[in-house]
What we know:
Elements: E1 9-17, E2 21-28, H1 47-72, E3 81-86, E4 95-96, E5 99-100, E6 106-109, E7 115-119, H2 120-127, H3 132-147, H4 159-177, E8 180-184, H5 189-197, H6 206-209, H7 212-225
Parallel strand pairs: 1-8, 3-7
Antiparallel strand pairs: 1-2, 4-5, 6-7
Amino acid sequence: MASSRWRSTRLALVALLVSVLITIPTGTAAATTSGNAPVNASDARSLDDINEDIRSARYVINRFWAAHWSEFFPGRYSPPRVLGAYDGGWSDTPTCRGYPLPDDNALYCWPPYDFVAWDVDLMRMGYRQGDAWVYLIIAHEWAHAVQARIPERLLSRQLELQADCLAGATLFGAGDDGTLYFETGDTQEIAAALRAHADDTPWTDVSDHGTAAQRLGAFNRGARQGVGGCFA
């Protein structure tokens, strides 16, 4: 793997049959949140590894939207603020619109606050399944920031599924750009994680996030059709 100021990212492609055949990337890359709470990775994955992937995911996702914004939307692209890691169990947990950020969750806080953030335990939990989790979580929350910046007529009534679609478009679009480098084989961790957690946690309630099959289908649509496929 080539080295540079930003270490190149490798994603693995894996086929999984849910209700449709989908491809899910997993990745490894470069390091994390300046001035934010440290992510305490465990098991076989080190603190440095998860922090590298968080930083790389931020860079890759922001670079994709900066490069392609004008192809799809009016106006100039501006990234959201990255609050980064927090612990929902802290007594001084940061807030969004006056409410403490939720435990074991990730979110985009809509304008005027305009930031993305993720709970350290959520990242640690998913990272045990594989490093692609980090890319998916950040790409999904960044997609909500995209939704906050585009004309309202383009928004789906199913904002969460549209964000899943945009996450797929972002990661695979970055692969087309050469920012992410794909290899076959590896693992099914992201698909497995979405299937395991899509239906049984408050932050992925089917009433707003959709079922596991719907989420995977939306991600796959973005991966195959690109950004435009998320607004068809």
